[in-house]
Amino acid sequence: MWFLEAGQFSTRAAHDRRLLPLWQERWALAAVLAVALGVVPFWGNDYWFSAILIPFLALSLAGLGLNLLTGYAGQLSLGSAAFMAAGAFAAYNAQLCLPGLPWWLGWGIGGLVAAALSVLFGLPSLRIKGFYLIVSTLAAQFLIPWALVKFSWFSHGSASGVITAPPLTVAGWDLSHPAGRYLLTLVTVLGLTWVAHNMVRSELGRQWMAVRDMDTAAAVIGISLPRAKLLAFAISGFYLGVAGALWAFAYLVTVEPHGFDLARSFQILFIVIIGGLGSVAGAFLGAAFIVLFPLALSNLAGALPNGWIDAGQLENLQKMAFGALIILVLIREPEGLASLWQRWRSRARRWPLRH
Amino acid sequence: MTLRKTFSTAALALGVIGLNAQAANEQYFPLQSYRVGPYAAGGTGFFGGFIDYLQYVNAHGGVNGVQLTWSECETEYVVEKGVECYERLKKGLNGAPAAATNPLSVGIAYATLDRSTADKLPLITINHGRTDSTDGSVFPYVFPLQLNPYSEVSAIVNFIGQKVGGPDKLRGKKIVTLYHGSPYGKETNEVLQKLATKFGFELTLLEVPHPGNEQQSQWLTIRKIKPDYVILRGWGVMNPVALKTAQKVGYPTDHIIGNIWSNSEEDVTPAGAAAKGYIAITTHPSGTAFPVLQGIKKDVIDAGKGNLADPKRFGTVYYNLGVENGILNVEAVRLAQARFGNKPLTGEQVRWGFEHLALDDKRLKELGALGLVQPLKLSCADHEGGGAVRFQQWDGQQWKLISDWVQADRAFLRPIIEASALQYAKDKGITPRNCAKES
Fold first, then answer.
1. CA–CA separation, B103 and A160 (whole Å)
2. CB-based contact (8 Å) between B188 and chain A?
3. Mean pLDDT of chain B
4. Which of A22, A196, A304, B334 has the most CB atoms around it within 10 Å of its CB?
5. Which residues cross the membrane (chain A) (predicted)?
6. Taking CB atoms and an 8 Å cutoff, what residues of chain A touch B138?
7. Residue A8: inside a domain, yes or no?
């Protein structure tokens, strides 16, 4: 009974434009934000920041970027990691070539470069669809990391091609320690999520969904398909580029093209599929599943006495368990974890009555 | 999902905090090992040797009564997993403080470099890692023990110089370097070019894309160039493929010189007969005759506690590298104990031990490792210490040593290393330590 939506009518136009129409959701979000911003930075330890929260947030942003393209605009892509790499290296080079440039502007430039590349590789989407489009984005996945290794200009002539991040400071504050990097990541991801959430409810978002559901019909009612598709590629590329910069500079503090390989693209695709296509919250749920679950399994296994199971065997067992869990989730919830929330809400409305 | 989430959170918390038993008289080694994945051969051998040596020390009462303990976290050689393992294990185990991390991976070492410095925990990158971390005034917690990548190629060039009858005979000779298309493979290209200018040999750099099983065109180029020597800077599957392709195009195997990650049994055995005569460098001969290995055999392996899944790999190159790494880590702890007391030490104290490592022939003989480990002397300014390699040749069955220690031209390399370290310090806003003031 405590999840009653009844009586929550919008009486003013401003209410209609709210991000979250229900007060329960608004309060829940406020509580989560208060904990994430006010409690976690003081309470968390290095392990939580560096191994759990930062990669979770960065991958959530990447998942969100792909979700805009695949979940909302319906364009399949396997080049996500390549655009992350482009964003990371562009952010790095921007800061080196323009000394004194603040890191956040550098990250923005990284996002813009990734967006431009994404549009370039998205051009074939004007002629081809579905699985054929995957081939074009796959080309990005092979070409970009290859170019980053091949031409030492990208890594600024660094002997090994591995580059490290400059210190992250905000108004004289050094935020290079784990809690600071967590805060930077959190604020960046929150800002971009807020924009994305607004965007998918805007006219552009409606256009994307129209293109996704039936592009012929969308064209007939006057939606410009090239514009909608290329904007989807550009915005998705921007999100992925910023996620790449976060991954490189806030998480690993180092950039290596090898870290942005095809496996990473698949990981982001799984985040979107398991979290829920066409859902902003889904990207976060999916990233939580993909990042946290293997960690939980591995930590559980670490609690076993030394030498109980061979360390290599253990890793293989964890992979099997994780694979089984993915299959289980997809059987039980083919529309992703985000639809669990919807279902929970409809049940909560009737609580404590059943059906 | 909510229940499941609670469960996983609880599990995580349990794993992170661990069972907080009372502080034991133990020194802990966090092992970021890899036993599955494409580089498992290296990981199982290296960490097998390392663990067996720690067990051997424990069987003899530990280090001055302090028992050694360790736990493993599987990285699969993946950087992100390595970082996660580092953060999970750095706090020690059951009250035993961590002594040093040994990831045996360039990628993981790069990603944990800043963290090690912030956490005051030595990062050991034996035979690999970032060359300019040799300069301890900028990298106080990073130790590319024995051999950094620049010393590695410099020693190879010096060896080729010996082979052709003196370094001045190198002028006009042709050398091809076949390198793995990765950060690791590219690391030495620049310094090779500098060495080429210095000695006047003609250098051709050929890249083999990852993972390295496609080399036909590179070897056809080599056949066209007809170089006097080919330096093989390979990794994993690239090495046997290189040897087989060399045989196919008719390039003599005994003019191919493998680097430090192209020197194991696992690199040559898959190439079969094509590998016979192949030369590679090593910092530690393979074989089981050394007293320390005999001791491990007696106290650990024959007692049924050996870590190797395949006992036949006892005494191989990767295994002996693990033993060597164990010796250096334990000696650093022992030295630090002499200064800070015979108790479990913090990472900062163990670092002092590493910086004062000094192994001469006498000490190596006591350890039963004379000939296995090169004499080393580290300092604040020099975190490498050795810089020498020996050369071995594969006779079809096993590696045979064919040279004494060949020293790298460290005086030539030092200014390059210092310039690079200084640039790093500038980028990162680090003030280098004054090594003249350190004791």
1. 18
2. yes
3. 90
4. A196
5. 27-43, 49-69, 76-95, 101-123, 130-148, 182-200, 230-254, 266-293
6. none
7. no
